[in-house]
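Running co-folding for adenosine-5'-triphosphate.
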Amino acid sequence: MWRFVIRRALFGLLVLWLVATTVFLLFFAGPADSVARRLAGPRAPQEVVNQIRDTLGLDRPLTQQYLGFLNKLLHGDLGTSFISQTPVSTLIMASLPATLWLVAGAAALWLTAGVTGGVICATAPRSLRDRLITVTVLAGISLPTFVLGIFMIFLALSVFPWLGLAPGPYIPPLEDIRGFFQVMIMPWITLAVVQAAVYVRLTRGSMLDTLGEDYIRTARAKGAPEHRVTYRHGLRAALTPVVTQFGVDIGALLGGVVVTESVFGLQGLGQLMIRSVRDGDLPVIIGAAVLAAAFIVVANILVDIAYSFLDPRVRLT
Amino acid sequence: MALLEVADLRVTFPTPDGPVQAVRGVSFQVDRGRTLGIVGESGSGKSVSTQTLMGLTQGARVSGSAKFEGRELIGMPEPELRKLRGAQISMIFQDPLSSLHPLYTVGWQIVEAIRLHEPATTKAQARKRAIEQLGLVGIPQPDRRVDDYPHQFSGGMRQRVMIAMALALNPKLIIADEPTTALDATVQAQILDLMIRLQQEFDTALIMITHDLGVIAGMADEVLVMYAGKPVEHAERREIYYAPHHPYTVGLLESVPSVSGAKDRLRPVPGAPPSLLTPPTGCGFHPRCRYAMPRCPVEEPPLIRGSACWLPRDIVGTGPEAARRRSEAAGR
Ligand SMILES: Nc1ncnc2c1ncn2[C@@H]1O[C@H](COP(=O)(O)OP(=O)(O)OP(=O)(O)O)[C@@H](O)[C@H]1O
Ligand code: SF4
Ligand SMILES: [Mg+2]
């Protein structure tokens, strides 16, 4: 078990190193001046280009630059933004909580709603309630996030103004818990709706497969009541693919939830990424990209470990 | 009054293509300490008729009667039926790998079976009993294997686990649905021996379902042969094996693998089973029967003296001589 965990962790580190190296080569390979020009952007004046070349030491040999890059990365030093002149790590740390809270809250919503909906459908396939939920899910999946977001803002401002819901920058919960919820509820729902729709489908399918298994018949033949058959026997087995998907989704979303964050002006990692791409702020782009990759890698390792806890058949040594 | 008395059981599944008449009038009785074999090819309704007794055929239209210790099972409210399932009537299924839950230890699954019916039993007590049960069915080192998962057992050992679980509450009736089909020949024999031993020890009634008459040759007291949802021959073991009357039973006997193993398996009954959406008229077997007479597709032969066939009652047995007499009677 632990050997497996360690092996997966080492493999994850390897992937992260490859990501970092690729990013480095993508941006820093080439003659010093053209690299500096690329970093600064086509419209930047020559002084800025020169300044970038000198501060980053672009005329040093590539291996030396590479070692310096890795060394800084290991110490959490991701460089300094060209635009705001603040350390990239500071910018990221400022944007991270909004994204973390957004994903955490939405995940709780969509997982609950998705699994519940899926189980309700699967226990009565082709019934009226199954069809109703399936149609709703189709609508949910095909609804573009920004349309839903804008519609929610419209509702919040014109129909339920007394709720005090408003789009706006993230408010830390410890600072103003009421304000935190007023800002977060709409993005949570917006992000959760589409995801919940996906999870209803996933759970329904997985649950239908499971409920057709012979061991479900065995459970009934033992005299287990129907709810026990559904949950202890059925859902327990149907959950494995759901957990896998959940880990992968969380990992991908933590890197930034671009559309939802932008619609509500949450100022999380997704928006930081968008802004830095627009401004050509390369150190920030690199930092955010490496962080997003790290989230995905870590999430995948956690999924593998969770998987081996969930299913004794894949329990590895 | 026999332990289980089934009379004119009919089971129909509504499907998008129309009603599937899986069981069309089956009657039998089983008593304590006795074994009934139910034989027939795939799709003949063996599983459906027995699972219906336990209320396991969801969505089916059921008619007829099935009395267990005098209590009617058909239409019995689910909570009452549930008290019988697993406690008074147990089932053993064909494929022990897929019939055991892959994510729980075998101990957990046996403990669950016990505690579902005896909520007062503590987990520790139930576990002790689970270990005893595993020992009883011949699993070595049961106190250690109890914490293993089904995939850690061999096929035969897994079926022993299923048997241990089915016997955990000392049921009065065991329904074994092709318990050895998924196992290889030697293991098959061991499992059958085990079942016979346990049945005699606990004086249980046993229904053995199989598509291979060879499997129950040594254990069934009587045999019910099913074809397309109907009983076509129903008799004491001796009669079925030494003096079969129905051409389908004869065909099944001739397809039994010989002692030397499945290698030189004789020809299976030629033809394919009929559709249960539109079962054949008259005798259900007539499209495949070598001796079909003009009346066969028109008039349905009743089950008289153990066989539902228009051929004269005195023509029985397998082999060329019986075949010649049947052809003669059929006018061929
Ligand atoms: N839930 C269901 N819905 C529709 N048809 C069904 C259903 N369950 C069984 N059937 C049909 O009923 C018929 C009898 O099935 P059953 O499982 O009893 O056959 P069997 O004799 O046990 O065969 P096997 O040897 O393959 O187990 C089959 O044709 C099957 O397709
Ligand atoms: S009744 Fe006719 S068709 Fe049916 S088994 Fe007998 S001979 Fe064959
Ligand atoms: Mg069957």
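Result summary
The radius of gyration of chain A is 24 Å.
The pocket of adenosine-5'-triphosphate (ligand 1) is lined by residues B 13, 15, 20, 22, 40, 42-48, 211, 276 (CB under 6 Å).
Job closed.
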